[in-house]
Amino acid sequence: MKKYLYIFLALIFWFVVYFNLEAITNLLIYNIVGLEKDTHLTTAIWFFVFETPKVFLLLILIIFIVGIIRSYFSAEKTRKKLEGKSLIAGNILASLLGIVTPFCSCSAIPLFLGFVEAGIPLGVTFSFLIAAPMINEIALVLLMGLFGWKVALIYVLTGLFIAIISGFIIEKLKMQKYVADWVYQIKAQQSIEVEDKHQFSHRVDEGLSLVREIVSKIWIYIIAGIAIGAGAHGYIPDDYLAHALGNQNWYAVLLAIIVGIPLYSNAAGIIPIVSVLIEKGVSLGTALAFMMSVIGLSLPEIIILKKVLKWQLIAVFVVVVATGIIIVGYIFNYLVFI
């Protein structure tokens, strides 16, 4: 019972701090430290002091909830749900499962091998691999917290569209011969799924453990992302990014993707930067294209996939996904949703 009492008190603390964070930041920056208002340095510091606890508070809460949900899922369960599905139904289901299953690009190879061994079509496998890192639950919650539910919903729907269509196209192109030869030579091992008898208290422990594990690995990326965002927020003129990446420039989406692909970050690290881009006048479609390219087409993920795919299939994967991101970027640059 003590554990649940501590969690209850922690939730109360979470809500009190989160919903009074702006007042706390103002008190600290202007009253206690005594910084002068409306200077570049003060603006940058205020952004960093406000956004850092805000992002971490959101992250800790959602990872805890996801950790509990995660205890009900496994890669084996995911594979079994996808076995025997028709192509388009499999693409849709795989993309939806990608949202709720906490796998990232670092899991790409074992997941890919497991799906191939289970006889799941290549296109369905790619739908899952695209959706899992791009439309994960952390991205959804942070987007809702920073931009509101409309932008979060737009991101999820467009991400699903890209994952479903990309997987469908890859399957129709019959690219199986461009999977590394050794992959199909692996003898599929039949996994025996043990009945899940975890008590809820054990699932709570898994949630707490996941918070420690993930936050310990990504905290530096989050702080780096917020620091970059704070610098841009305080020192880059409002009209500079708006002019370079505004929807008046036909190449804005293409430029955002080209810049985004070489970068490596997860959703938690890149969303604070995207927040500043939108605040500085970068159009929604361009900002979403940048974010999707960083998360869904990152160079490290491409390097990881090279171990199981030949360059021809990797090239098709990049072109198809990038084309989907470009289309989404241009569509939302000319539609007003905010």
- The DSSP helix count reads 17
Determine Rg (CA atoms, Å): 21 Å
The mean pLDDT is 76
Order of helices and strands: HHHHHHHHHHHHHHHHH
Question: How would you describe what is shown here?
Answer:
The chain is mostly helical and 338 residues long. The protein has 17 helices and no strands. The chain has helices at 2-18, 21-32, 40-70, 75-82, 87-100, 108-117, 122-134, 137-147, 149-172, 181-185, 200-235, 238-245, 252-260, 267-279, 284-296, 299-305, 311-333. Helix 6 (108-117) packs antiparallel against helix 7 (122-134), helix 7 (122-134) packs antiparallel against helix 9 and helix 14 (267-279) runs antiparallel to helix 15. It is globular and about 65 Å long. The chain starts with a helix and ends in a 5-residue tail after the last helix. Residues 187-195 have low confidence and may be disordered.
